[in-house]
Design a protein that fits this description.
This protein has a single domain, classed as Homing endonucleases (Endonuclease I-creI), CATH 3.10.28. The protein is an alpha+beta fold. The C terminus is likely disordered. The strands form two sheets. The protein has a four-stranded mixed beta sheet with strand order 1-3-2-8. Strands 4-5-7-6 form a four-stranded antiparallel beta sheet, with helices on one face. It is 45% helix and 18% strand.
């Protein structure tokens, strides 16, 4: 996998690890981790995933379910067609393990300038995914994200170090909180993780009716970071 493709595949894998699998995927333990699709409760996370998959030549269907009573929200579902799920699983899984190995496999001193640039790109991709799709924990003195994936939490800690930012890992009830201090550390993470301009206009989306699943599992809209 070339390094540009690796960056996109790794970021897509991180986005997936920030979210639970869709309801239909959870109903069958035989399905591989990346077999069917993913759900986001933020449109910008879904649009980023669509952009990454388009670069990886993987088609995807985007559906939107609207729910809630007093507080309305949208649940964005991305589905990969059956005939492309094998390629989807292979490229995202390979992107995760190769990207993880680049970041956690050893210290950067002595690495070539190209490999250092790759580590920086992968680190920015990991934080961008977490800020878009994970549970955000924003306080006056920190910027944090809540994750249920231990491996991704470790990747975020290492990624912050690559970006010259100290990060802390704190176990919580059923999750991990990864945080950086407010001020220059927060600004550096946000600057590194800033989204690049989209390469082209988004294709029209279909709209799905509200569902019981959406009401039960999606959270209210999160504040922007």
């Amino acid at each position: 996998m070339d390094w540009l493709t690796l960056g996109d595949a790794f970021e897509a894998a991180c986005l997936l690890r920030c979210t639970p699998p869709p309801a239909t995927a959870r109903s069958s333990t035989a399905l591989p981790a990346y077999a069917s699709g993913v759900e986001f409760n933020r449109e910008d996370a879904a649009q980023r995933m669509r952009q990454l998959l388009a670069r990886l030549d993987i088609p995807v269907t985007h559906e939107v379910a609207v729910g809630g009573l007093r507080r309305r929200y949208e649940l964005h579902r991305l589905w990969v067609p059956q005939e492309h799920r094998g390629a989807y699983t292979r490229v995202v899984d390979a992107g995760w393990w190769q990207g993880r190995r680049e970041l956690l496999g050893g210290p950067l001193p002595g690495a070539s300038p190209a490999r250092r640039r790759l580590a920086t790109r992968l680190s920015a991709a990991a934080w961008r995914s977490a800020l878009l799709a994970a549970g955000r924990h924003v306080r006056r003195h920190i910027l944090g994200v809540r994750l249920t994936d231990r491996e991704l939490a470790a990747v975020l800690i290492r990624s912050a170090a690559v970006l010259d930012v100290p990060a802390r890992l704190r176990p919580g009830t059923g999750c991990f909180l990864v945080s950086v201090n407010d001020g220059p550390d927060r600004a550096r993470i946000l600057s590194s993780a800033a989204l690049e301009p989209a390469r082209g206009p988004a294709t029209p989306r279909g709209t799905a009716p509200p569902s019981t699943r959406a009401v039960a599992t999606a959270t209210a809209g999160r504040p922007p970071y």
